[in-house]
Amino acid sequence: MANYRHGRVRQEIMREVNRILMREIKDPRIEGVTITDVELTGDLQHATIFYSTLSDKAGARQKTQAGLEAVTGKVRSELGKAIQLYKVPELTFERDSSVDYGNRIDSLLNQIKSSEPDTES
Description:
Blueprint: H1 5-24, E1 34-40, E2 46-52, H2 58-70, H3 72-82, E3 90-95, H4 98-115
Parallel strand pairs: 2-3
Antiparallel strand pairs: 1-2
C-alpha cells in the first residue's frame, strides 16, 4: 500500500511557509519571496525550502538570503503551531536556480531567433 504522507506533509509545509512569510513576518528583506518547492528527508526531520525572488541583482539576493536565515526560527515556530507533526523539521532556505536556468534558455532562444535570416518566401 502506498504511503502518501511524505507528499502531503511537503505540500502542507509549502503552503504554510508561504502564508507565514506573507502574513506573519514583517522583514522588508523578504518581500516578494515566493516558495517554489520543498524537499523533505525520508524521516521528515529536515526540509529544504526553495524560493524565488523578483529581483535579479546579486546584492538583493544576498539580503533576501540573510533575511530568510534571520527568520528561520520564527518560521519554524509558526509552522509547528500550524501543522501537527511529532517533530517540526529543521528548515533550510535555498534560492531556486530553475527560474534563472529558464530565463537563460529563453534568452538563448531569442538570440537564435533574432540571428536567423528571414526566409518568408
